[in-house]
Structures
1.
Amino acid sequence: MKNFNKILVNTELFKCFTCEELDEIFDEHYYTVKDYEKNTIIYLQNEKCESLDIILKGVITIQKIDQDGKILTISDFMSGDVLGENLLFSASSNYPMTITAKTDCTLLHMKSSLVLSLCQKNKCFLKSFLMSLSSKTLILSNKIKSLTMKTIRQYIVDFLLIEYYSQGSNKIKLKMSKKDLAEKLGIQRSSLSRELNKMRSDGLVEFDANYIFIKDVDFMKTLHTN
């Protein structure tokens, strides 16, 4: 565990502790550290949450898979992020979504008794725990809101404008496959391709396998606003 203390002290949850204090906290072994290979399912949808998890290394992805096999990617989390805080002490503590290792990763699994003890003994930890809990709720709420209020074109427009500001160019380099993009937007791969073709026919974009070119950024912004 000592190998990971330097990671933990730089996380929001353990920012109030020193490496020496973490040695004492984890000396009682109310935790496990596990490695997961890329694409390994960490938790299945409906599996019971029995620990608070901190990502020590790698990236995990949270996805909702419906009965037709459609995949909706809710969010990706990486080193230092926390999982399970919104479920651990819930009356209904089953994971509502599937959690998968997007890369090779290492997770710290903390037993509920240790989490409860830290909340009782350390106000800074308690505050960070509650902040993390609130953030997870907000992520899910925003995702649900976007799914219920937007068309497929609006999903695409939002994505393109975010990347436009991030990359500083109207020639958007795709950092993922169109299949992964469709999952991230919560739509089918065929629906994404169909709408992109419609947007090209409407003179909004041009695209190939690696780039999407926004032809009129100002007009694209009006689509986002409306």
2.
Amino acid sequence: MTEYLAHKVAHSLNLDARPDIRVHLPTTRPVSEFHDDYSMTHNFEEINMWLPLADTQGTSTLWLESDYGTGKAQPIDVKYGQVLLFDGGILKHGSRKNNTNNTRISLEAKLSLTGSTERADAVHLLDRFSFVQG
């Protein structure tokens, strides 16, 4: 995954060795409350990689703040085979009650430019969010 994404963004990347796996069953509460990662990790240089293992939409997907500081979240529909890269350090994100009949299984990891310690490095990789597809 690191080599594939590094090729897509034209930089050497560090990626979590063990991504988090999340399972969001139908009619269940949110997998995570809305939050920004900086409040927990204090790492400005990281961005999030979110990989669902099936198509997601509506309440079965990740919700992401529409722009920095707005507090207004929107669902980000991600198709199987796509990877969502987003600025989870600053943009608030989370999930809603899954009101669909679909179970969402997803992987999430943090990535950064190799040797990065600066916020500008994460911003260099993306503005707010982008999709990478094979």
3.
Amino acid sequence: MTVRWIIAMRPLRADGSARVGDRLDATFRVLPSDLDLLMHMTNGRYLSILDAARIAYMSETGLWRRLRTRGWHPVVVAQTISYRRPLTLGTRYQVRTALIGVDDRNVYFEQEFHVGERTHATAVVAIRYLDRTGESVLPDQVLALDVDVALPDSLPTWVGDWSEAIRTQAAADRPATASSQGEPA
């Protein structure tokens, strides 16, 4: 994975023509270390490849350099993935990545694993950017960086619903605090 990360961080488009919102492909090959006992790519490796493909995306759009200059970095807050077809040893595939929208806290990437035009897996990943102190950076601040942005007018409805369901569940899972039990804060 280390070699994949290094390659992903090198922008492929030297002319800066890639825009935030464009669909960009990063190419990978299934390696022996990617396989599980059934001889297809293990489900956890898909998530690691998604990370590398997002870094490649941010590098190609110029976003990575601008984020790092400010000391900002991305963290995954939620993701969902659907597997359709296995990837096997030696298969060359592309991960097609696009930043598909934002809400008040997160940016959302859609990422698809393709062999040719055949889809093997699809994921949506919610990312939050943090500053050097660990505080959240608002998505509007990220989009205001000196990069060319061409996002859809709105986040897909199901993605917003999914994100809200995760937030609701996270809030329900938090233990009650002293102030919520009527005790002084």
